[in-house]
Amino acid sequence: MKKSRIMSESEQDDFNGPADGNNNSLLFLSFAPAIASNIIYSSCFCGWEVLAKFEFFILDQLRGNYLNIKESETRRCFQPTKTEWGLAKLLSLEIFNDLSNGYLVDDCCILGAEVYVTKSTGRMECFSLVDTPDRNSYTWDIENFSTLGPSRYESKHFIVQGTTWRIDIYPKGTSKSRGGLAAFLSWVKNGGQDSDDEVYAVYEFRIKDRLGNILQGYTDTAKHKFCSSSQSFGWPEFISRKDLEDNSKNFLVEDRLILEAEIISMSVTKSLP
Fold first, then answer.
1. Tens digits of per-residue pLDDT, 24-69?
2. How confident is the model at residue 191 (pLDDT cuts 50, 70, 90)?
């Protein structure tokens, strides 16, 4: 819940000094997060922002009419660093204290404000950056590779810094390749993630032999922002069909292909409630 309140210069003596130095009363509109009737400022509200136009009114108690005074023709932005907007010159004290005008009757005045909210936002995000995360690689030992069809095959899920990933391959390639091995890194979103969450990752794919050595010339690096609309990114042809079938290159010893993915660095942007 958000709540507005009107502040006179007696509440806000340090805004522009008492009155404004020219015998004019001050009036301000304050807009702040509120719980029940108490205005409080808490870190959980740090992302709120309200765009609004507003005007003040003072009742002529003798004639039953209101004097309306617009604060501005433009929208004001209320946020944690600027919770108050107002007029340093609302009405001169001479006019205000003139009893014939009806603004002050029995030492009492009636005033108010009308607020027109044009946009309200409250989105907060948490950004974290991890350079060289712990346990940042996953090795997929793919057996009976030659028997695999043209469909997509998925590795087991692996977790790096709380983010879930998997490797996807197309052994016969995709429509964008010429029958070679297509390999992709996919971000696996879980139920606790917001649709606006994003992960930016720099990662490397490489082929290894049975002894765990990296085959020279068959590593590649990519970077990508993973999000709801783009959860997978990689190489339509990571290894050509010709190289795969070349026994001298030792890709498929005993019909096994060993593919490794390493997350070199990553950043995570999470939407907060």
1. 555 544 443 332 223 333 434 455 677 878 888 888 999 988 888 8
2. low
When mean pLDDT is compared over 202-206, 245-249, 266-270, the highest value belongs to 202-206
Higher pLDDT pick, 99 / 6 = 99
| DSSP track, 43-99 | GGGTT-EEEEEEEEEEEETTTTEEEEEES-SS-EEEBTTB-EEEEEEEEEHHHHH-G
User: Do 197 and 268 reside in the same domain of the chain?
Assistant: yes
d(Cα 248, Cα 56) in Å, to the nearest integer?
85
CATH assignment of the domain containing 117: 2.60.210.10
Are 156 and 42 members of one domain?
no
Domain carrying residue 141: 126-272
On whether the CB atoms of residues 71 and 85 are closer than 8 A, the answer is yes
Residues 150 and 103 in one domain: no
Residue 141 and residue 115 share a domain: no
Q: How far is CA 199 from CA 65, 163, 228, in A?
A: 59, 9, 10
